[in-house]
Amino acid sequence: MVLSGKRALVTGAARGIGRAIALALAEAGADVVINYRSSAQAASDVVAAIEAMGRRAVAVAGDVSVEDDVKALLAATDQALGGLDILVNNAGLVRDKYLNYMTLGEWDEVIDVNLKGSFLCSKHAVRALCKSPAGRIINVSSVAGLRGDALRANYSAAKAGVIGLTKATARELAKRGVTANAIAPGIIETEMTESMPAPRRETMLSQIPLGRFGNPNEVAGLVVFLATDVAAYITGQVFVVDGGLSA
Predict the structure, then answer these.
(1) Is 101 annotated as catalytic?
(2) From edge to edge, which strands make up the β-sheet containing 238-241?
(3) Distance (Å, rounded) from C-alpha 157 to C-alpha 177?
(4) Residues facing 188 on adjacent strands
(5) Residue 115 DSSP symbol
(6) Measured in Å, how far apart are the chain's first and last C-alpha atoms?
(7) What local confidence, expressed as pLDDT, does residue 7 receive?
(8) Looking at 36, 98, 155, 233, which residue is catalytic?
(9) Which of 178, 223, 187 is CA-nearest to residue 85?
(10) Which tens digit of pLDDT belongs to each residue from 2-15?
(11) In this structure, what are the phi and psi dihedrals at residue 131, rounded to the nearest 5 degrees?
(12) By 3-state DSSP, what share of the chain in percent is helix, strand and coil, each rounded to 5?
């Protein structure tokens, strides 16, 4: 129970990678706030699974791209857990389209949730994290933010921005004892990849040296590590989890 007594907030935690992260943090001993935007039942299921482990959990609805929602989310976290030690900025979405056909609305929506959401949550969590003896910010970026991705100019730009945000945050908050790191997953098996057309799946698989897509738990395990005291001297770094895709 390496995170026993720690309090965590995971955005976009009802499904996919966020769900795996929330469950892994709870398994390691943390109490967890599950943020979601529309998947109320899925969020409730995650809460039930965490409570079954003997940990505290609460689901809080909110759009991370809306500042008032973020303020309410942090207030609810403080009320439920009495503070915050670990913030995981995971909430994200994609709106795939060729650059010349991408609308401004599709650009803005992806930037708002993936990048502005990470900024807003970090901004409003700073005070609570600085009160923690070991504050942690862990941002979920993507290999798309490192190498770009066809049909995803908006997503690649947002995730590259998350990396820049992480590095700036790490420098700014280091003197206050808070670390900030980013994880850049490759192609992870989630509902998003399950709906991928078969030809595209085969093309992507052929580019991965390990020959398979990742599992959400393989991302979640790294989040747990970065949240522990073992990682106290690691900050401003980007950790790639992609089966060798970007090697």
Answers:
(1) no
(2) 57-61, 31-36, 7-10, 86-89, 136-140, 179-185, 238-241
(3) 29
(4) 214
(5) I
(6) 33
(7) 98
(8) 155
(9) 178
(10) 999 999 999 999 99
(11) -85, -15
(12) 50, 15, 35
